[in-house]
Amino acid sequence: MSTTEVLHHHHKHCDQLFADAEAAGVKGDWGAAVADFTRFRDELLAHFSTEEQVLFPAFEAATGMVGGPTQMMRFEHAQMRELLEQMQAAIDQRVRDPFAGAAETLLVLMQQHNMKEENILYPMCDRTLAGSVDVAAGLRERLEEKCPASA
């Protein structure tokens, strides 16, 4: 198992949760949208915090690189957090179009972000942190703690 394998799997899990939340919101099924979006948001935020508090610091410490790819990923995480807030506001107000617009933007950003992580950053982390059982275990434990249902 690579250091970042659990994060690859969690991307796919979050993608499915997003699809459920988006479908409910676009249909205007607000009861389902609230539940599905809350689960998706919580899982995505847990994913971000796991990367920001476990993976990125370990990579930065091992490489001395603090202004490179991890800085860009943190910036994109902040953009996605803002879109989550917009989606939440639309759900709270039960307005379909703003929800769908923010969801569409978030989907594109997530797809681009995940491609960069999975094809560039994660392989760099795997090479740099190869054999670091502590980092791999820390990622797994943190996601299990924050998202027990996804583990």
UniProtKB/TrEMBL annotation:
Cellular component terms, GO, for this chain's entry? plasma membrane
Which residue ranges does the record assign to the Hemerythrin-like domain? 4-125
Lineage top rank: taxon: Bacteria
The record's section on InterPro entries has:
Hemerythrin-like (IPR012312)
Pfam families per record: Hemerythrin
- PANTHER family per UniProt: BLL2471 PROTEIN-RELATED, DUF438 DOMAIN-CONTAINING PROTEIN
Q: Tell me what this protein is called.
A: Hemerythrin HHE cation binding domain-containing protein
